[in-house]
Amino acid sequence: MALHKLQVDDFYDDAYKLIAIHSRLEDYRLAYLLNKHLDLKLERKDTDIDFKYLESSYSIFEWNNKTEYVLWNLISNVCKREADSLSSTGTLFDRPEKILKTFNLITEYKKVDFFLKISDEIENVNEKLVLSKIQAIPQIITSYAVDPLQIKSKDHLIF
Q1: pLDDT confidence of 99, banded at 50, 70, 90?
Q2: Within 10 A of 137 (CB to CB), how many other CB atoms are there?
Q3: How far is CA 115 from CA 31, 36, 86, in A?
Q4: What's the predicted TM-score (pTM) here?
């Protein structure tokens, strides 16, 4: 009897462009600047992206341009949370210390602050033009295109 094996990765073939953005701006401020310079209408979604049982959450802004069949997503790559530090009992100071833990959505790109995901069905978005407009924004340090196929944790970008 013949044995057939199906690979699950074969079914997911979503074509999208991914742009990494380095900026120290708050997420809402970056969304405002992208809206202004790229003529977008990004809005914050009601729920954030949560991973590992609410251990980390990442803000997401979205705009579905139905006239051009393009879905724009601005996703934060960094989540900082306060946590109690481990300390031994009987210390001089009884107050527990707080430490700041940093989590990344895409662990291969720990230095990237945000990702701009452009899902276009008919591929009418000029990635080079978008990159040049983003790099013209003075508050953005740098931006560059990322190949989504080279990312090991690309499943985190499915939402």
Answers
A1: confident
A2: 17
A3: 11, 17, 33
A4: 0.80
